[in-house]
Amino acid sequence: MPDFPKAILALADGTVFRGIGIGATGSSIGEVVFNTAMTGYQEILTDPSYSGQIVTLTYPHIGNTGINREDCESAKVHAAGLVIRDLPLLASNFRSERTLSEYLKAENVMAIADIDTRKLTRILREKGAQSGCLASGETDAEKSVAAARRFPGLAGMDLAKVVSTRAPYAWTEGEWALGKGYLTPESSRFHVVAYDYGVKRNILRMLASRGCRVTVLPAQAPAAEALALNPDGIFLSNGPGDPEPCDYAIAAIREILARGIPTFGICLGHQLMGLASGARTMKMKFGHHGANHPVKDLDTGQVLITSQNHGFAVDASTLPANLRVTHVSLFDGSLQGLARTDVPAFCFQGHPEAIPGPHDVAYLFDRFIQMMQDRQAQHAQA
C-alpha cells in the first residue's frame, strides 16, 4: 500500500473534508465543481475548459485504466485539482503507461481521495459551485478555509487568453483508430480557421477527419488575421472562464459574422457568438458537468444524450430577433443551441465531440461541413 500524505479540501462556507493526497504536495485554490461522467478522467483533467476549477468526480472508482499519452486533450493538466472517492491500487489497460497518481505528481497537480464525494456533491448542488482550497501535506483547516475565501470566483475572469496558443499552427491529425492510432487524412476539401479559446484536440480531429485543413489562431487574433487566410469556415472553440470579459473575441466574431462566412461555435464559442449577436450571458448555480445530459433538438424533436462542461450560459430572455433557439436542456430548460437567422452561423453549448461521452450530437460537425459546401456551390454559380 503506497504511503499517501494527509490532505484536506476546504470550502468557502467552512466545510472541511479530510482524506489522503494522491497527487503533488502543496495547495491549490479554485472553483469546486462536480462532474457526473463515469469515464474519461484523463480527458477531463486535460480539458482547458477546467482551468481554475477543482473537479470532483462523482463516480467512486477513478484511475482504473491508468494514463496514456494519446488520450490527453491538451499538452498539460488544466484543472486546478482533483477530488475522488477511491483510487484503485492497480491500473489495468493495454494502453496504460502510468498510474493516475504518478501522472498527477508529474504534472504538479493537487488531488485528494478517500472523502465522501456524495456529501460534497450535495453541498454543491444545494449551495452552488463554491471556492475551495485543496492542500496535500498541509491539514490546517482554518488556514485552508481562509485560502478558499480568497479565491474571487470565475465570474468576471478572462481565462481564454491564458490557456490559448501563443502562435498560429496547422492541425492535420484525424480521429483515432484501433491498431492504427491517430490517422492523417490524405486530402482536404475545406480550410477552417479555428479560434483557440482553450480548444480540445478531439474537436480539431473531428474537423480534420471530415476533410478540413485546420489553421488554429490565438484567442486574441483580430478578425482581419482570420479573414486574410481566406477560410471556408470559422470555428469558435470551447474554453474556460467568463465569456463577457473576452471583448477581443466578441469584436472579432461580430466582424466575421458580418462577412457571412459559415461559423460554428462550441461551449465558450457558443456563448461568445451569443454575445457577439447581442444576447447576454449569466453565471449558473453549479453548471453542467457530465456525459449524460439530455438535450432536445427543437428542429427534429429528438432527445440527445450529450457531454457538458460549462458554468455560464446564454440568457434566453435576452436573445435578439436574429437568434433562434435550436436546443434546450431537459434537466433545467436552459439554452443549449442557437442559430443565426440572417447569416450561416450556429452554435452549441455542449460538446458534440464528446471525449468523454456519447456522440449523439456529432451531426453538428456535419452540418458545419454542409454549410461550407453550400457556400462553395453558391460562389461557383456566381
From TrEMBL:
It catalyses: L-glutamine + H2O = L-glutamate + NH4(+); hydrogencarbonate + L-glutamine + 2 ATP + H2O = carbamoyl phosphate + L-glutamate + 2 ADP + phosphate + 2 H(+). Gene3D superfamilies: 3.40.50.880, Carbamoyl-phosphate synthase small subunit, N-terminal domain. The keyword Repeat does not apply. GO terms for molecular function: ATP binding; carbamoyl-phosphate synthase (glutamine-hydrolyzing) activity. The keyword ATP-binding applies. Pathway: Amino-acid biosynthesis; L-arginine biosynthesis; carbamoyl phosphate from bicarbonate: step 1/1; Pyrimidine metabolism; UMP biosynthesis via de novo pathway; (S)-dihydroorotate from bicarbonate: step 1/3. Residues 1-190 are annotated as: CPSase. One of its GO terms (biological process) is glutamine metabolic process. Composed of two chains; the small (or glutamine) chain promotes the hydrolysis of glutamine to ammonia, which is used by the large (or ammonia) chain to synthesize carbamoyl phosphate. Tetramer of heterodimers (alpha,beta)4. This is Carbamoyl phosphate synthase small chain. It comes from Candidatus Desulfobacillus denitrificans. The gene is carA.
